[in-house]
Amino acid sequence: MSSPSPTAGAAGAAPPPEAVGPLIRGLAVLRELAAADGRRSVGDLVRATRLARSTVDRVISTLSRTGYLRVEGRDAVLTPRLMELGNAYLSSCRLPDLLGPLADALADGLDESVSIAVPDRDGVRFVHQATRRRAMSLTFRIGDLLPAERGAPGALFAARWGEEDWRRWRERHAADPLDAGFPAVPHGRTDAGASFEERAAAAREQGWSADDQLIEPGLVAVAMAVRDAGGAPVCAVSVVSHTSRHSARSLREAVLPRLRDAVEAMADALKPVGQRRPAAPPAAGSAPASWTRASKQELGPEFVESLARGLTVLTAFDTAAGTQGGHGGSAELPLTEVAEATGLARATARRALITLEHLDYVERAPHDARLHRLTPRVLELGFAHLSGLTLPQITQPHLVELVGRVHDSASMAVLSGDDIQYVARVPTVRIMSVNITVGTRFPAYATAMGRVLLAGLPGPERAGILARTELQPLTLHTVTSAARLGDILDRAARDGYVLVDEELEEGLRSIAVPVHDRTGRVVAAVNVSLHAGRGTPEHARENLLPPLRETAARIEADIQVAGRYGRIAMG
Ligand code: PHB
Q1: C-alpha angle 371/374/380, rounded to 5°?
Q2: Nearest CA, atom 4, ligand 1
Q3: pLDDT by residue (tens digit) across 494-515?
């Protein structure tokens, strides 16, 4: 497929005269990075976007400043922070918040995977996954896009298509018969297209739609739509299984009654949607506009203010309080509220909205054209790729940065049984007698990271591990008294760090802090390890604890964003 000009809207139209060029170009760079699974050299970005090198450079420095990407050597790399754009869509559409728990309960009850997807033009985009994957090779991520004809949900949406929608679908299907434009699905010719119109008609008749291996061999699904008061499908709920357990038919027979009950309950749960909550006033002085002005003053021409401002317009739709401007927004906003939430002048906010509408990231509410809302297309800005990052992958660049500052090795570990296990590591010189790599295990009781992790456990779990563990002296300094270890863990919980000197190995000092998930649970520990001969423990505390804490806080900030609508895998 030939790629459209980077300035063209999703439908290929030229931008309107008020459109903000830098915002269009910045989003083109983000899309190219997303399509390349989050990493691309600057040279490749120049070629792919057909933008001037100096333009791409300025986009990259602006997006580095907003925290949406980082530069690694010659590559630009998307960061988890970028997921705040997709989070704004997911919170504003309310589907994961309102229907997610019902989908999870259905998946538990059926012991099969359940997903929620929304229509995105002639595609289908996933907004929630309750995964029970067993024999399956393929799992869609939140934000992944399917061609409507592949999979169960699309026929439910197409059942309502008009002639124009079908024309657009036929054109796309003819231009891209192998679905090369849909990186989330296995490529290759299927007969999914040939039968699509009949399946859409059948879905209209029956109220359900089946996927008999339209995506890949073995994968079967049945879906029903959750409808609004007017009967239009808001989203589709799919129950997904594998031919090793079910044929498409036996799956349908087994799950349809419960699926029907679930979508009815979901339609009920959606009823309050559409009632707008009054927006809270923006927090004084913290509006994104003042932040972008300060960045402009600091970075000069390398900071493209209109790009940064345009992106803050997307986050203004986030319904949660405490987004960039401290604004508790609502799902559908008039121009005035977008301007208020972002601190932008009305004219600036208006041009950003016009630009975002041109690119299909914003649309008008069907019931009131003065109201703007986000479209699921916002998720194409890297969300699917970033939602697949594991905790070690999220952590690694932060450890690299820490090691660059302190010049000692840094690691992350998690509890695994009664041991700690390394899941990420950035070494400098080797000071251990054993070579620590990802996967290395040590007894938790004798390590700083282990003590941080034990201190973070609920009392009974901690007690259980300690009761099982034989506190062996690994060096002359190892604490082997259970009572003393208990005191150390209590202090660790209070102080939020642990320093261990030569208890695991002579000559080795380690200082560790906890990493918390969104609920405040300790899920990992990060440490810096160094030679005990280099200065006093107090020296290590003074010099290493502050940067280590900053690193943990950055990892936790990423977890906050990345874990809001999806589960972050531990590794
Ligand atoms: C999925 O959620 O993975 C899924 C949904 C519908 C399908 C196939 C897979 O038709």
Answers
A1: 165
A2: 240
A3: 999 999 999 999 999 999 999 9
Q: Which residues contact 396 (CB under 8 A, 6 or more apart)?
A: 424, 426
> Edge to edge, what strands does the sheet with 362-365 contain?
333-334, 368-374, 362-365
In single-letter form, the type of residue at position 529 comes to: S
Q: How high is the pLDDT of residue 324?
A: 41
Strands (E), 228-265: 233-242
Per-residue pLDDT tens for 197-213? Answer: 999 999 999 999 999 99
Distance of CA 238 from the midpoint of ligand 1 (Å): 6
Residues 194 and 150 sit within 8 Å (Cβ to Cβ): no
Dump the DSSP string for 194-231.
TTHHHHHHHHHHHSEEEEESSSSTTEEEEEEEEE-TTS
DSSP 435: P
Q: Is the CB of 152 under 6 A from ligand 1?
A: yes
344, two tokens: 């932008």
- Copy the structure tokens of residue 149: 């004809």
Residue in 99, 115, 242 to alter for ligand 1 test, most ligand atoms within 8 A of Cβ = 115
Those residues whose C-beta lies under 8 Å from the C-beta of residue 59, and which sit 6 or more positions away, are: 22, 25, 26, 29, 51, 304, 307
Please tell me the predicted confidence (pLDDT) of residue 279: 46
Asked if pLDDT for residue 460 goes beyond 50, the answer is yes
Asked whether the beta carbons of 417 and 443 are under 8 A apart, the reply is no
Q: Are 282 and 327 in contact (CB under 8 A)?
A: yes
Q: What is the pLDDT of residue 9?
A: 61
Q: Which two tokens stand for residue 298?
A: 């600091």
pLDDT at 24 > cutoff 90: yes
- Of the ranges 65-74, 152-161, 268-277, 421-430, which one carries the lowest mean pLDDT score? 268-277
Pocket of ligand 1 contains residue 154 by CB under 6 Å: no
pLDDT band of 290, cuts 50, 70, 90: confident
Strand locations in 87-122 (E): 113-120
Please tell me if the CB atom of residue 240 comes closer than 6 angstroms to any atom of ligand 1.
yes
Is any atom of ligand 1 closer than 6 Å to the C-beta of 508?
no
Which of 321, 312, 324, 295 is closest to 348 using CA atoms? 312
Residues 564, 568, 571, CA angle at the centre, nearest 5°?
170
Output the average pLDDT for the chain.
92
Nearest CA residue ID for atom 10, ligand 1: 151
pLDDT-based confidence at residue 10 (cuts at 50, 70, 90) = low
